[in-house]
Amino acid sequence: MDVRQISEEVTARTKVDTTARDVEKVISCLSSSSHFWEIVCNAQKPFSVVAEIINALWERGFVSIEPNGEIAITQKGQEFIKEVSIAPRRDFTCPSCDGRGIAMDKIREWMQKFDELTVDRPKAIADYDQGYITTPTVMARVALMAERGDLEGKRLLVLGDDDLLSLAAAITKMPREIVVLEIDERLVDYINDRAQKLNLPVKAFKYDFRDSLPDQFVGSFDTFNTDPPETMEALEVCMTRGLSALSGEGCAGYFGLTRTESSLKKWNEFQQMLLSKFRVAITDIIDNFNHYVNWDYLLGSIRDDYSFIQVKPRLNWYRSSMYRIETVSGFGRIENKPMPCELYVDEEALIYKPEKTLTKA
Ligand SMILES: [Fe+2]
Q: How far from chain centre, in Å, is Cα 246?
């Protein structure tokens, strides 16, 4: 048996290009964890790819699936791992900042304030593919913006805000003004209500980013923040809206991109699109910066054909890399027109059931 054979099988089943190295990486993660969601988190490969690799290993008797869904390497598997010398995954992540590079002690007070302010926040729902980031993440993200000079005295646009980053940013009293454009009315009302009660410079409006950006917001912000759905189309629409809102050169955009729902092939396509279509430079990609709170609808919205998948996650496994882009000289007007598109479902998406497809009529 060789890993290449498995990678070819997995490519055929998932329609996502999978290499022999990908298979080795998943085996390496299996050597350090038996919990599916931890393996997905560490392997940094699309969800369906990890699932099919584990299944292929099970078919060959290299792993066994325990009744509780835990994945164990068998004697046969151990011998194989030794034979091809795959080392267990090692972890050297800084435990005090979780690898974000932000001194958490300096933002502790804001984190506490944010938790108090948002204690009754709306729950994440499947309709808009929601899942929000943890409090340390949202506050570290705000701190990163401040550190890069993109927050203090600036106008910030938040495109989609189930993370409530607008309120997190407002707590610091740094931004001059914050505008939220959000499709979910529950969130629009919630953000406006909190902002009004605490007299924060935040205004939220209902908006579907497939519609063109309203005129009053075009070219009027210093910074945008978003967490796009990860089909190529949605990524392009999101970048178009965010960048249309920026006022000129030297402005910045912040967003997360996962490895769980986006293969490196998609990263490559996305980065090419970003650099060829827009006058921007990618200044930062911080691996695993964004950690998401586990959402209630996960197990009901994903495939249920493998028992090791239908296991409640025991860690905040869903993570994304923090991107920062900056507009460079020559940055100008971007075509701002309606862009109908598939937002949530492609081969690499977590949600795969056809009835969950949420294309606008
Ligand atoms: Fe650190």
A: 22
Asked, for residue 90, whether it belongs to a domain, the answer is: no
- Give a yes or no: residue 351 inside a domain: yes
Residue 325 neighbours by CB under 8 Å, 6+ apart: 252, 253, 274, 280, 281, 282, 283
CATH number at residue 254: 3.40.50.150
Which string of b and e fits 29-56 if b means at least 16 CB within 10 Å?
bbbebbbbbbbbbbbbbbbbbbbbbbbb
CB 324 within 8 A of CB 283: yes
Statement to judge: residues 79 and 210 lie in one domain: no
Q: Give the model confidence (pLDDT) of 118-137 as tens digits.
A: 999 998 887 777 889 999 99
- Left if phi > 0, otherwise alpha if psi is -120 to 50, otherwise beta: which for 199? left
Gap from CA of 280 to ligand 1 centroid (Å): 28
Round to whole Å and give the CA distance between 289 and 293: 13
Q: What is the Cα–Cα distance from 146 to 107, expressed in whole angstroms?
A: 12
| 150 and 273 together in one domain | yes
Question: Is position 298 within any domain?
Answer: yes
- Look at the pTM and tell me if it is higher than 0.85: yes
Cβ neighbours of 21 (radius 10 Å): 11
The answer to whether position 12 is within a domain reads yes
Residues 165 and 228 in one domain: yes
Ligand 1 centroid to Cα of residue 21, in Å, is 29
Inter-CA distances, 326 with 161, 222, 350, Å: 21, 10, 30
Neighbours of ion ligand 1 (CB under 5 A): 94, 97
Q: Count of alpha carbons within 13 Å of 322, Cβ hemisphere only?
A: 23
Whether the per-residue pLDDT at 353 is higher than 70: the answer is: no
Distance of CA 260 from the midpoint of ligand 1 (Å): 24
Owning domain of residue 291: 104-356
Distance 162 CA to ligand 1 centre (A): 27
User: Which CATH number belongs to the domain containing residue 45 in this structure?
Assistant: 1.10.10.10
Kindly state whether residues 127 and 75 are assigned to the same domain: no
Going from the Cα of 93 to the center of ligand 1, the distance in angstroms, rounded, reads: 8
Into how many domains does the chain fold?
A: 2
| The pLDDT of residue 114 | 97
